[in-house]
Structure prediction request, 333 residues.
Amino acid sequence: MSEHPLAALRKNMQELGLLEKSGLKSWIKVGALFLVVGILYTVHLYLPLAWSIALLPLTGLFTTTLAMTGHEGVHSSACNSRFGNISLAAIVFPLFSGLSMEHWRDKHNVKHHAHPNVIQKDPDIHAWPLAFSAVDYENSGIFRRFFQRHLQGILFWPLTLFTGHSIRWESIQFLAKHPFKVSKRKRFNKLWLLDCTMLVIHYFLWLAAPIFFGVAWYMVLGFYIALWSLVGLFLSMIFIVGHAARPIVYDYDENWRLQIETGRRIKMSRISSFFFVGLDYQIEHHLLPSASHFALPKIAPHVKKYAEENGWDYEEIGFWKAIWISTVYINKA
Prediction:
């Protein structure tokens, strides 16, 4: 490991104390976000329908940010202890968001982080019915090809409204299949049971409890669908700018270079960065996934300098430019 190209960078970050985590900061941020969304959800109960709809984008933005803090827990970058990270992930992902933390760990940590933008390995560049590359297009049937060539660019952003709901459905499928895909000893492990329990409580608190206390069922269901549709849109805006229009990789021999050259750093203000929970520093997050997002702004200059010294392509652009580039790429992919 002492000869690994990133060994000097990691050692430097450790000496500067930038790989230390602050569980207190993480829990304060999660607590503050729960307070904000709690107030917003309560306000929606008393507003006229038109005003409630007008407030929904703001509510969706803070809901997305809270949901994204679960990403920190699954990466073990929120707290120093395993118990702290699992607790945060369980509260934010399955309980609050209805997303399985074990499904996210498998899809995001194991598959995406190990192979960003790699054909047939990164699930984030293979999403039915879209094509993210010529390979996807060539492997599609005639109707999907028509959609990908003529409609994908127009319908991409409207389709992202289904993202939150589709990930939730994938979570249920993952948990249902899990006991039949692992050894008998690991079939009903503690994390699987925790995931399932929290998901059941999620649907009870979000859907059954409000109806029990007198809120009309169509208002409850409508709010749930509309809110999490907006969350899907915001999540897509956060994730798409990190990798879209960066190189699509067929084969590689340097994983550390892959982590740098398939991602990009998004330049934005401190206020805007708050809502990204570290994913505006996509390159730094991929190189050091267990680093706290609070430390990434200080880590970024060191990573950029290190990449440039080694001749690796470090891309750094503004958010709206990244949105435009990503949208054009999806249209032509």
Remarks:
- Residues 217-243 form the longest helix (27 residues).
- The first strand starts at residue 265 and ends at 267.
- Residues 7-332 form one domain.
